[in-house]
Predict the structure.
Amino acid sequence: MIKTVKKAGAPLLLIAPSLILVGIFVYGLIGANFRTSLTDVHTAAQTTGRAPSETVWLDNYFDLLGSEAFQHSLKNLLLFTGVFLAGTMLMGFLWAWLLERPLKGEGIFRSIYLFPMAVSFVASGVVWRWLLNSNQDASATGLNRLFQMAGLDFLQNNWWNNVDYGITAIAIPAIWQLSGYVMALFLAGFRGIPDELREAARVDGASTWQLYRLVLFPQLSPIALSALIIIGHMSLKSFDLIMSISKPANYQTKVPAVDMYVFKSSFDYANAAAVGSILLVIVALVVVPYLVRTNRKEK
């Protein structure tokens, strides 16, 4: 026992500062947030302590989940995540597949396609707000004006101003910005497959399609899973891009993260904390199974 303590003592002392900081500023604040979500702090007076507050337990969660407005936010979140995931995975994989074998000028193309990642969501959101302008016909601008000039008037639409599906329009700039990252992941996966596997498949008489379908694509499943988890949890927490293109008061594009901002801005700390806790649970449902699966593989 003493030997075990001595062996673990030095490593524990080495990582102790990090453990303490993470414990206070991550898990401690998560606990404080959850505690706030169980109270009735909905006004500025209660926030500053000038008015009393009390514990209402899970009432805030029941009120939120039963609210039509918050249900609309959750629906928008699912739509945004679905389109964002499908678009980035499809575009990223297709470009990686095309670049799977080295091509002339590949480095230039990769740099151009990865460049959007270097732009902040706020900066790109300002540009895409103009591109996705909902004005049509004579007052059309952005993409609607481009469609008009190309004689494709039927493609003009309200973009993010559509109440039911407007949030999917905001997924377009998100796809543009992050599909290059997915391409880099898949391209690294393709380049990491040994040439011996390809040669063995060709010796066995496999066609090009069979080579990809039966040999190469299965090797990319860990890459695909990692990309899904990374892009999925990013989409679930999306806030800055949506706020840059739309506004907090816009019902058609609001998601839980925007709701949390609106609640906090109006000193409704209890509901803001409750929304944050709900988002944490949603993200955990996506990330934790992946971490468990990865840990089991390593053992």
Summary: DSSP finds 14 helices and no strands in the chain. Residues 44 and 136 are 42 Å apart (CA to CA). The chain has a mean pLDDT of 89. The radius of gyration is 24 Å.
